Amino acid sequence: MRLNGKVAIVTGASSGIGVGIAELFAEEGARVVCVARRETEGNVVVESIRRRGGQAVFLACDVSKEDEVAAMVRPSYRAIWTNRCSWSTMRA
After folding, report:
1. Strand residues in the chain grouped as ranges (E)
2. Helices (H), the chain
3. Which among 86, 81, 59 is positioned nearest to 6, based on CA atoms?
4. pLDDT tops 80 at residue 11
5. What are the respective helix, strand and coil percentages of the chain, to the nearest 5?
6. Is 6 helix (H, G, I), strand (E, B) or coil?
């Protein structure tokens, strides 16, 4: 568990390599913020991580839009620095 106590923000986490990265980081003990445009697919990834004992949340975000990235980072930042664990209710 090399990433215990860490939070990883993984973009593109609804498919492909983004899913693999999110799953690997969770397996290594990180709390994972899965970020992507496709909410349905992203939530499937989060549920898969949780079923295997990991901690993850999904935040919908198009990283090509600065305002969406800022809205995604704010709740992630609060969760990281205040060490809150309200992962299931965190929203952008």
Report:
1. 7-11, 31-36, 55-60
2. 16-27, 39-51, 66-82
3. 81
4. yes
5. 50, 20, 35
6. coil
Q: What is the CB neighbour count within 10 angstroms for residue 58?
A: 28
Q: How many residues does the chain have?
A: 92
DSSP-derived 3-state class of residue 85: coil
- Give the model confidence (pLDDT) of 34-75 as tens digits: 999 999 999 999 999 999 999 998 988 898 999 988 888 776
CB 56 within 8 A of CB 34: yes
Residue 2 tokens, joined = 């090399």
CB contact at 8 A, 88 and 50: no
Task: Please list, in sequence order, all residues whose beta carbon lies within 8 angstroms of the beta carbon of residue 81, skipping any fewer than 6 positions away.
Answer: none
Q: The whole model's pTM is what? A: 0.80
Look up residue 69 and give its two tokens.
């990235």
Phi, psi of 59 (to 5 degrees): -130, 125
